[in-house]
User: What shape does this take?
Amino acid sequence: MCGVFGVSGVAEAARLTYLGLYALQHRGQESAGIVAVDEHGHSRAHRGMGLVSENFDDPGLGRLLGDVAIGHTRYSTAGSSVLANAQPLLKDLRGTPISIAHNGNLTNAPALRRELEDQGSLFDTTSDTEAILHLIARSRKVTPDDQIREALEKCEGAFTLLITVGRSIYAVVDPRGFRPLVLGRLQGGVVIASETCALDLVGASMVCELMPGQFLKIEDGHITELPRLRDRPESRCVFELVYFARPDSRIFGESVDRVRRELGRQLAREHPAPGAEVVFSVPDSANAMALGFADASGIKLEHGLIRNHYVGRTFIHPTQALRVAKVKIKFNPVRGVIEGRSVVMVDDSLVRGTTSKGLVQMIRAAGARQVHLRLSSPPITGPCHYGIDTPTREELIGATHGIEEIREYLGVDTLGYLSLDGMLRAAGEQSQFCHACFSGQYPTDIPEGLVALRHAVPSIAGLV
Ligand code: AMP
Assistant: This one.
């Protein structure tokens, strides 16, 4: 997953982008980067591994001159976590700088890459995104507007993009609209971001959210709407609302907080926990769901688990032993809330089951009499091919085990997953959703072996 942020027509755009990226840090912690464009159209880039705060300092931002900039935070889902894959990518195209920041995954990336390499393209990265640049460069169309459109018509899957060509920024969302992108105004300029929380941070006022297929050109703070990309059935990612986006954001026409509370209420209706004395969340991702659960069930909400905020997400750690240790580093139970009680623990989702298993052990050790686990989404049964980092099917506990087996493995007294219908109802009627990771209904073709191809080991060590 990734976050993108762009500015046009505001002085010191790189400094603003740096601030905006802070608000999008949750969308990607592996690398961060900014490309800035000055008044002559010269572009400068800085990209580095790690967090936004680790990569930029005052002199460095001062060197990123200009009133146009785009930025990116990355969480790798295609291509490995190395500097070469950090974005925005910046290239020279026949004397004009072109840069790109991408959120999403192209489902036809391996095929595009093979085709482009057969035609002579040499790739510098293993990310999907570079294929888009090569397609633009190879277009025989005359204007950048048409070159970009022609390139994007060849792409399948999820692509929310910010592209600079000289001083213009192109903002586009793929025709299915998997990933969010919002547009705001600031001091006569334009700000564009993955989520509204980034507009809030820089003080921009929200103008609109880009609709699926929408294609904008932004020059010196002026917005031109270009013809939309060809029509496809809308397919907003429901997991953005369940887990990924920040609860203080509005995306897909919905308040993320509102949806999450409703997920919790619906969960309480579908899987009540009679006799339970206290409900708490796995913080922070399930906080709003636990509020909703408490609201609908009448069970008292407490803080039963405390999260250490100075640890990265546990999900990315490769070995099982390390993952278990990381659960303890990240969470600790509040004994006074838990001891001697029947408790309901609410989480947003279950992936491998490692976090929940570790938490249940801790809660039992803190003296819980009964533990009822409630999950605010259905079992995850398949990988995401559109930009969320999910492990292979074999590692997904919801794909390989039945509910009773999972309950036993986690060591809980009762286990309740929200139904697909319940989740979609809570997500609202404003959008049509992609729920492929829960339902197996993928809205695009998925080429055979896509996961393996996406993580294929490149021949150059630096790109591994
Ligand atoms: P697990 O221990 O593998 O079952 O992971 C479950 C936890 O990971 C839940 O508490 C979620 O909040 C969180 N989670 C779910 N999906 C992701 C993801 N794609 N990346 C990082 N964390 C996730």
Observations:
- The chain has a mean pLDDT of 94.
- The pocket of adenosine monophosphate is lined by residues 243, 282, 285, 313, 315, 347-356, 388-390 (CB under 6 Å).
